[in-house]
Amino acid sequence: MTNQPPLDPVLAAFRKSIDNIDAALVHILAERFRITQSVGEYKAKATLPPADPARESEQIARLRHLAEESQLDPEFSEKFLRFIIDEVIRHHEQARDG
């Protein structure tokens, strides 16, 4: 057993808030992917393409603007959204391919 100093209560409070936010993010992402899974199934049945580049561009522009308003780095927000979009497209391709 190692002797660790007691955790600073201010740091502990910050970490608890971060943990709560992380949990909320996971739940939000899970819900988003449940919805996009339904979208992928619909697109497959309707023979629509898995990707919609025009919609993706609109969403990226919209979220970059929201990031700027929220004082979040718009480059980071775009990278994050692009990661999500790429994963959704992969799921839609899987739905299309059966």
UniProtKB/TrEMBL annotation:
Keywords (A to Z) from UniProt: Isomerase
Signal peptide (residue range): none
Domain of life: Bacteria
Domain Chorismate mutase: 5-96
Enzyme class, spelled out: isomerase
PROSITE patterns, per the entry: CHORISMATE_MUT_2
InterPro entries hit by this protein: Chorismate_II_sf, Chorismate_mutase-related, CM_bact, CM_dom_sf, CM_II_prokaryot
Keyword Isomerase tagged: yes
Gene Ontology annotations of biological process type: chorismate metabolic process; salicylic acid biosynthetic process
GO MF assignments: chorismate mutase activity
Classification via Pfam families: CM_2
EC number(s) stated in the UniProt entry for this protein: 5.4.99.5
Record has Isomerase as a keyword: yes
PANTHER family attached to this UniProt entry: CHORISMATE MUTASE
Name this polypeptide is given: chorismate mutase
Organism of derivation: Qipengyuania marisflavi
Lineage: Bacteria, Pseudomonadati, Pseudomonadota, Alphaproteobacteria, Sphingomonadales
